[in-house]
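Suppose you are handed only these lines of text.
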Amino acid sequence: MPVSAKTRVTGLFGYPVGHTLSPAIHNAAFASLGMDWVYLPFAIPPERLAGAIEGVRALDLAGVNVTVPHKEAVLSLLDDLAPAAGAIGAVNTVVNRDGFLTGHNTDADGFLQALREGAGFHPRDRTVLILGAGGAARAVAVGCALAGAGEILVANRTAARAEELATQVENLSGARARALTWRGAGDLKAAAFQADLVVQATTRGMHPRAGECPDFPFAALRRGVLVTDLVYNPAETVFLREARGGGARVLGGLEMLLRQGALAFGLWTGREPPVAVMRSALVRGRSL
Ligand code: NAP
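From them, the structure of the protein bound to NAP can be written out as follows.
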């Protein structure tokens, strides 16, 4: 679509943004629906974030995605937060309605959609084991808790962060939650056996360190249990290969990436996101 006098502008605020696939995904979606919209990458250093957010109002951008390192810092610059964003304590999507900025977090619902569409799994009454306690782990824990998970177990390198997340989940929902010690194996082994869903939500195994894998008792997994890795580059991590070798069903991070983007598209435009088009753009972009 050519840019016109009426083009609506969206984009990504991050630092850096050089490798993002989001412009390819969203611009393909706008074009497929014949929409006069565009999605641009904006490299915003941390000290410029407040000015950039004011720029969303001043330039009347329809909204933006927010990524590393701004997902938490942006909270205090917005006018309102959707409940999930408030609970997670991080925003990945900002919607601008006449200068009033609302922060959303589409990672939680994107993850739940990915589970449902990619693996036919719903966390209701299930036991979920989460490795990690960073932003992505928080989104998964809050999403699963609000979706009715029975028990959420959290293991993290820094134990205090796992404790904090488990306490937050219990305060938020009816789910039982417990922090596990990662070292000493016994605790984690029992949890691996108990889990209906295992979520690898640390940065281990992510490009350029694709050879790495969190220390995990794969042999304790039950056959057919669902194991997901939020890392999407590479599409299949060593963690997923090991889990599959142990008899698990596996789901990589690309489906969640796609779904959280599609949800942001819907929030900005009010239109049904063309998921198939967005998936093709993602696959094409990854192979370039
Ligand atoms: P983050 O907030 O920086 O958290 C990083 C997590 O990884 C923390 O729990 C950290 O533990 C742990 N960690 C880091 N290095 C480790 C190591 N050497 N050994 C064990 N644990 C280690 O990052 P994030 O935003 O949560 O992102 C986590 C992953 O999810 C990234 O790979 C990201 O690309 C992916 N992600 C994917 C999607 C998607 O749509 N598929 C969406 C969001 C994020 P400590 O607390 O001990 O530091």
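What can we learn from it? The pocket of NAP is lined by residues 107, 132-137, 156-158, 161, 201-204, 206, 214, 230-232, 253, 256-257, 260 (CB under 6 Å). The chain has ten helices and twelve strands.
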